[in-house]
Write a structure and sequence with these properties.
Number of strands: 12
Helix content: 25-40%
Strand order of the largest sheet: 8-7-6-9-10-11-12
Distance between the termini: 23 Å
Order of helices and strands: EHEHEHEHEHEHEHEHEHEHEHEH
Structural class: alpha/beta
CATH superfamily of the largest domain: NAD(P)-binding Rossmann-like Domain
Strand content: 15-25%
Shape: elongated
Number of domains: 2
CATH architecture of the largest domain: 3-Layer(aba) Sandwich
Largest sheet: 7 strands, parallel
Length: about 300
């Protein structure tokens, strides 16, 4: 089978080497499309491929229409909103992610962001400590649990909300369960967001929710830009000069936010939650192994478009 490694933002060289070794050892051909300048390049590259490994690359209906042999797409990472799942399902294309491979990298970043904001972005101004503060974790999956473990080790109190888990499962992860998003925000000095961008969650973090946070609270977003109502965020920061926001998914209105609120707001230049050497390699190798397993045994364990 011909496997396309399509990465506008390339993997580390060691990851590419490992991906290639895994796939070629199983009898597959690997072709690469890296640092391509335009979406049209991806469309042109898929005409004869049976499988794809991607990162943040957009696999749209147009891409799938240009790939009549395509059987599987694996997104190296947890999120998969860059793939048109409905179009893939309609064409019988299996879409998978690689859950857990980037989790520690994202969790470490979330904790680092809390400290960065608590210490006033490392300026000489007097900051605060996170020990003794309460963190609310919105979605208690792979990343959320790791954030909780690290926050607890730093002396923080934990509460968590996850509609897919029982209170007992949340307690087993070391957190106190809460039963509404309003309760999570109103009880937490820090809220760490780990929800996907779905129709029900897009712009769900809005003015009313943000302004429920206690005095001096900080909102930390290592999830998706789309879950934040950016106009609502602007209003909340205007009306509550004690609140702070930090994200590794730059808002569309970031320049205005930064100009107006200064050190109360920060965004990384690009999404960097998974930007560690370890996560880069882990996710890439997992994607390659899943493709090998799928063609060898039909295993669809990590399929996200059933």
């Amino acid at each position: 089978m011909k496997v396309l490694l399509a990465t506008q933002k390339p993997f580390a060289a060691k990851a590419v080497e490992g991906i290639t070794e895994i796939l070629t050892a199983a009898g597959h051909e690997v072709v690469k499309l890296e640092k391509y300048p335009d979406q049209a390049d991806l469309v042109a590259a898929v005409s004869d491929v049976e499988a794809m490994i991607i990162r943040s690359d957009k696999v749209t209906e147009e891409v799938m229409a240009a790939a009549p042999k395509l059987k599987i797409v694996v997104r190296a990472g947890a999120g998969f909103d860059n793939v048109d799942l409905a179009a893939a399902t309609a064409r019988g294309i299996v879409v998978m992610n690689t859950p857990g491979q980037n989790s520690n990298a994202v969790a470490e970043l979330a904790v680092a962001m809390m400290i960065f904001m608590a210490r006033t972005q490392f300026t000489p101004a007097t900051g605060s400590e996170i020990q003794g503060k309460r963190i609310g974790i919105q979605a208690f999956g792979n990343v959320g649990r790791l954030v909780g473990q690290k926050a607890k080790a730093l002396g923080m109190e934990l509460c968590a909300l996850d509609p897919f888990l029982t209170p007992e499962q949340i307690e087993a992860g070391g957190a106190t369960p809460v039963f509404s998003v309003e309760e999570l925000y109103s009880r937490s000095d820090y809220v760490s967001i780990h929800i996907p961008a779905l129709p029900a969650t897009i712009k769900s973090i809005n003015y009313d929710l943000i302004t429920k946070m206690p005095k001096g609270a900080t909102l930390v977003n290592t999830a998706r830009k789309e879950v934040i109502d950016e106009e609502g965020l602007m209003r909340a920061l205007e009306d509550r000069p004690d609140l702070k926001y930090i994200t590794d998914v730059m808002p569309d209105n970031y320049e205005a936010l930064r100009e107006k609120f200064g050190l109360r707001v920060f965004a990384t230049p690009k999404k960097m939650g998974a930007q560690t050497a370890e996560a880069n390699i882990n996710a890439g190798l997992a994607a390659a192994r899943q493709i090998v397993d799928y063609f060898a045994t039909g295993n669809t364990r990590f399929q996200v478009n059933r």
